[in-house]
Amino acid sequence: MRRDGLIFVLIFSVISISCAKNTYVVMFPRTIRPGLVTEVYVNILEATGPVTVTANLQDSKNITVASGTKDISVGTPSTVQLQIPLDLKAGLDYGLKIEGTGGQRFANWSKVSFQAKSTSILIQTDKAIYKPGQTIQFRILGVYPDLSIVKQTFDIDIYDPKGNKIAQWRDAAEENGVFADKLVMSDHPVLGDWKMKVTQGAAAEEKVFTVDEYVLPKFEVTVDLPPYGLTTDLMFHGTVKAKYTYGKSVSGNANIRLKKKYNHRSWGWRQDHPEEYVDSIEQSFPIDGESKFTFSLGQLKRLQQNLAYTDFVIEANVTEGVTGLKMKDSAEIKFYDNPAKIDFVESLPANYKPGLIYTALLKVTQPDDKPVVNPSSRVKVEMFYNVEVITTTTTTTTTTTTTAAPLPEEGNLTEVVEALIEPEIYDPWRGPLVPPTKRVPIPVMYLDINPDGLVKFDIDVPTDAVSFDIEARYMKESAYKYLQPFKSPSKSFIQVRLLNEKPMAGQTISIDVKATEAPEKVFYQMISKGNIVKTGEIPMGGLKQTEFKILITPEMAPKARLIINYVRPDGEIVTDGVTFSVDGIFKNKVSLKFMKDEVLPGSNMLVDLQADPKSQINVLAVDKSVLLLKTGNDISEDQITKELQSYDNAGGGYYPYYARMWYWPSTGRDASDVFDNNGMVVLTDALLYNYQEPFRPLPVMMMNSPVAFGGMGGVPGPPSPNGLKPVTTVRKIFPETWMWLNKTLPDTGKTTINVKVPDTITSWVATAFAVNPESGLGLTAQPSNLNVFMPFFMQLVLPYSVVRGELVVLQINIHNYLATSEWVLVILEKNMDMENEITYSSGARKRMHAKVGRWIKLLKGGIGSVFFPIVPIAVGQLKISVTAQTASASDAVEKDLLVEPSGTAQEYNIPVLIDLKTVGTFNKTVNITFPANTTAGSRRVTASVIGDLMGPSINGLEKLIKMPYGCGEQNMLNFAPNIFVRRYLNVTNNLKSNMDSKSKEYMIKGYQRELTYQHDDGSYSAFGNSDKSGTTWLTAFVVKSFAQASDDIFIDDKLFHKALDWLVLQQTEIGTFKEPGKVLHKAMQGGSAAGERSLTAFVLIAMKEADVIKGASDRTARSIKRATTFLEGEVDKLIDTYEMAIVSYALKLVNSPKSIIILERLKMLAVDEDGTRYWKHNAKESNEKKYSNWNPPHSQSNAIDIELTSYILMNYAMNNDVENGLPVLRWLTSQRNPNGGFASTQDTIIALQALAEFAGEIYSNDFNMEITIKSLKGEKFEDKHIITRDNALVLKVFEVPTGVEELTVFAKGKGVSLAEVAVYFYTADDIKTSAFDINTTISEETTKGLRLQVCGRWRQEGETGMSIMEIGIPSGMTPDYESLDFTLAPEYKRKEELFRKLVLYFDKFDAQEQCVSLNIVRTDRVAELQPSPVRIYDYYEPSKQKTSFYLSKLLEKSTLCDVCGTECFCKEK
Predict the structure, then answer these.
(1) Strands annotated E in 173-234
(2) Crossing angle of the two packed helices 1199-1214 and 1137-1149, in degrees rounded to 10
(3) Least CB-packed of 15, 201, 218, 1146 within 10 Å?
């Protein structure tokens, strides 16, 4: 029989052994990190004397960048320390050269991997969510992998959701390494997710926190379900729990809804009985703290016939009985056929060592991966090993099997199964023959399952085995493991096992070492976080087995790798390894303890703090209600553990419960694998065996049985007020963050602080971290909780905001946990910013400023409510003060309620370009005016300055315009501007790493989202496949934008090819392009038939931009030529300014001389005003009055005028014509809105491209300006700002008093900058001219709700492009989205749900009316409602709009009794 492969391996092994010199072994981590020490382990095996070992780190040019030297003697291993330079650069190749001189000479080298990460940044904020006007508090620290503190400065930037840099810190530092500061937010910040970006050296980290308008939840709802369901059960049970944050039970009603997680009908559903199918099942029942519920599996089968492996969701909504406040929770349950599963632990090695014990570990779990409870049987384990069968023939063609003996009773512990003989196999396609093997059984075992679900058993594998397989069975489930032998040319093996479970820092653990021969000693290396942390030797004393102990230190946490090894006399390195988790990552032990578990509000509390002496301890305590909204603000042990594991050269990560309790033997099939799989490089002249698999087929694996696979009393009247307990304290301190403090501990490492508890009835959650110059970072092991409670208290139920002039009913909930029933007097204090509605005993009502009281009788343990109707008359924060008194207890609370103006929001912006390049001073005055119908209290004025013409747009990248982003073209507004901003910053050398990463992130997200609007043929449309066809215009726009971005992010060339091929198919014989889809941008039609000239120019621009894409020009060359010829032939016919502008730019891109001819004609059509120049598309439209009875001091031009002027400016930029371009630039900068964008999407994108290209031409970094903004008329105001190159891109915003009538901008110095005055206000009705008609009809009108129909049509000639309808929702009401009806809206496309607003998209509006209708229901007690706005506008020309208002007469005239009834002393109807 042929044994070619085996002979080759044998010869190779002999040669390797004979070549080994056996003089040294060097090992070190395969990864180096800047600023850290790399330990190089050296073991001199043979030498005439001490050996001087030098370790040199060299770059790709063989230049030594780090070096370390040490004298090492034979038999006394040691480490050479190599300090890696902090300034080591990424992107280069590095190698480690080891040289020995003196008693032994050697040299060796290996490439090493460079990882820039050598420190971690940790960020803590006091909360994860904030309200406008609150203060963001933060702490930042950097740590090394050993958790010592990094003493380097931080650069910190905070960005709002628009991308505006709101604040920055440079070179921020504190002596102890923890930098702490705060940011006070304005009352009108941008809502959404904010980002804090921090860099420290080469390390960078981000923390996201949310700014939103919210009301803290008063109670928490949880749904408890079984961990899984079984299809064999008849039913399953669950529990809904509702608890206040202070721990008491909530009484009310619960509604639960069960539905499939993935709501599609199962494949096998009976189509002949569709009535049997339901989408969900609901139950309702009362709740008092908790309630149980039951669903039968028969009910579930109405949702899904086959329950196995189906996920169900149960949603629970709990309505508090006294307030109607609702909270919800949900939970999931999945169903399985079997109650258990079995598998081998994933970390088990696939190789055994002949002659040594192989320890196998099974896990028997429930379907939810938790240990089985009360196992119903033992685990049956069948094992076989395979030995080679020496045969004399190779012609066997049949397989012989024998019938297995009948299974024994479970009481028998062993069983023999007949062997299976396999023939010799030959596969001509895969190589030489595989020798036949004989499968030898091992007695069957029946094993008990431990309480943790683990089954451990040892296997003594015979030395002649060539493979080994194990099959384990439990109930109907089975698991299989195939093992192969570990390879050694001398068949020498060693094995290390951990004898302790759950090792902890500070603990001495026992290690068992066993070998197949008896070495004198064995050496070990302990590796953690990618470096060698401990080395030593283990005396074997000529024995094959020994036990030794190792002290576990924090440096070994959270995961340690132990490698043991020795060198045989013939030079072969014999090794093994084990990896295990280590608890106790912190040397610095920190604790925080409240002296009491529960206290009264406003009490003084002693808090014990402890950490290492001289540590600074940092304390955070936050309201549990905030954590119910959002978490993630704190520094946690899990977070740090994951950070530390990221330094592991061989990988890290989470390990399941059974792995954390055990160790992981090193994986691999030979000695080389052991080191490699532990992230170590070995240099040696001894034999580090690396087994090479012979060229032969894979082994055949057969099983005797199948493997199961998973499928898919009376109370007297009220007492006299004089007999009530007086109020001693007003509860008005309701912070969401209580403790945010730090202390330096004395030499004892202990201190006690005395703090005052806030007034909130809640639970406080407190944590602490400490830093120490020696022991580094430490954290509290778990949060400490303090319950703040009083047996009698009240809660104010306030909405986040109300509208001025509406009647709002305040609800005060009184909680009586006293030992007796009580009469309670509740008083709402007088406030001149609100009127109270008073009810007299006669039933008459009157409004006045008054102090109002209510009596309520409360039983012991009861909760009751009193109601106070008020009418807010001032905008801003309204102070609500309430007291509650009984004969034995009292409480007082003071809170603020936000009152907003009525009407519809308006704004205008006055940009001021400050040009001090040729003059030394500048001043300009701007007027601030408001229309007569401005609603009271709604005025707001801000002034801002920034030292860069592109600055407002750079800072506002995420929200350049106040419009929705729900279609394929609008999405590009999140994509394209980043391209031009990057180009501009590159030209001006200002593209910093944070902007680089941010802009790329936006582009990548925009790219991915745009693909959802792609059709199968490669084209794009506004709403993707829901449109009948792609559009030529949008497809060209996507091609152009993707091509411009292709240098910055990856974009698949195939996308370009498909889109370009589709565009080519739309071209006619004369060179024009057809538009088969919806016309989105109507202005592009210009003056030519169906917009053929402007559309052709637009596609030509896109095709030229796509020339940068490989293979694009081959597809478009002929089309470009035909389009160019057509446009050149149309030049003399051009009279429309938009067509002239876009055609001139397109022809400039293809270097046509006709471009300059058009440009010269455009000069004669320009409008020159006050040193600026621009063009109008349609003089009649451009001169149309935009406002009806009032005009702002500055009005933005039409979007089409901005767009065409931008095309002309780009033409000037391409011609380097600064003289003609500057007046255009001045005009264009004056058209920006307060967000950095313009009017709509296309004008914003083209204008930003033009600004970026031209501003880059005139940019200079030589500037230093002092800008003063001052009021010379009206209310006094003055503020000053100095702009230098360092802060040029930081937007500085000032709040201006609303009494200011004009502002003057003074400037001196040198440079170019931009100031803006933004004016915001509300008006009671529309102040702009109307381009649409809007009709609103209210029907089905009750005090509890109404049905609204909104109809709109276009008033002018033709039709609009894509248009938006925005429907405002009245106060205290919510839209019922299920009731929306679009039957009479044929052009409707989609909807978006925003805060108190419904946004609807339409392809177009024309003279034909389109109508939508929906139900709106009352959810809060609000009467005398104010009108709500409805607005329709052309998306691409927003000035063409109409705003109307609707108001239910019934709700306008609704009274207190309509919304509050008998609870507000009204008679029953």
Answers:
(1) 178-184, 192-200, 203-211, 219-224, 229-230
(2) 30
(3) 15
Domain ranges across the chain: 4-32+34-114, 120-211, 233-336, 338-405+413-485, 591-645+727-788, 792-899, 901-947+1263-1327, 1330-1462
Q: What is the average pLDDT across 1186-1212?
A: 85
Choosing among 3.90.1150.10, 2.40.10.10, 2.60.40.1930, 3.30.450.40, the CATH entry for 120-211 is: 2.60.40.1930
Residue that is written with structure tokens 């001819």 in the block: 1157
Domain 338-405+413-485 has CATH 3.40.50.1980: no
In the DSSP assignment, the letter for residue 1158 is H
- Please tell me whether the peptide bond between 558 and the residue prior to it is cis, using omega within 30 degrees of 0: yes
Closest by CA position to 145, among listed 641, 498, 628, 600: 641
pLDDT, tens digit, 9 for 90 and up, residues 639-685: 898 888 888 877 543 344 334 445 678 888 899 999 999 999 999 99
In the beta sheet, which residues pair with residue 545? 514
Which pLDDT score, from 0 to 100, does residue 122 have? 96
The class of domain 1330-1462 in CATH terms is mainly beta
**Residue 454: pLDDT above 60?**
yes
Distance in angstroms (rounded) separating the CA atoms of residues 122 and 67: 32
CATH architecture of 4-32+34-114: Sandwich (2.60)
Nearest alpha carbon to residue 1171 among 1111, 1223, 1243 = 1223
- Find the mean pLDDT for residues 912-937: 88
Domain covering 591-645+727-788 assigned CATH 2.20.130.20 in the classification? yes
Q: Which is nearest to 581 in space by CA: 518, 647, 502?
A: 502
512 and 548 in contact (C-beta within 8 Å)? Answer: no
Please list the residues that pair with 316 across neighbouring strands: 256, 329
Per-position b or e across 20-32, b if 16+ CB within 10 A of its CB: bebbbbbbbbbbb
CB 584 within 8 A of CB 576: no
String of b and e for 1261-1295 (b: at least 16 CB within 10 Å)?
A: eebebebebbbeeeeebeeebebeeebbbbbbebe
At 697 the pLDDT is 35
Q: What pLDDT band is residue 81 in, cutting at 50, 70 and 90?
A: very high
- Categorize the per-residue pLDDT at 1403 as very low, low, confident or very high, splitting at 50, 70 and 90: confident
Across the beta sheet with 508-515, what order do the strands follow? 494-498, 508-515, 545-551
Q: What is the spatial distance between Cα 1199 and Cα 961, in angstroms, rounded to a whole number?
A: 12
- Note the pLDDT of residue 162: 58
Mean pLDDT, residues 1045-1069 taken together: 87
Does residue 1297 surpass a pLDDT of 80?
Answer: yes
Helices and strands (DSSP H and E) totals, the chain: 21, 79
Domain 792-899 classification at class level: mainly beta
CA distance 1166 to 52: 83
Q: What is residue 1315's predicted lDDT score, i.e. its pLDDT?
A: 87
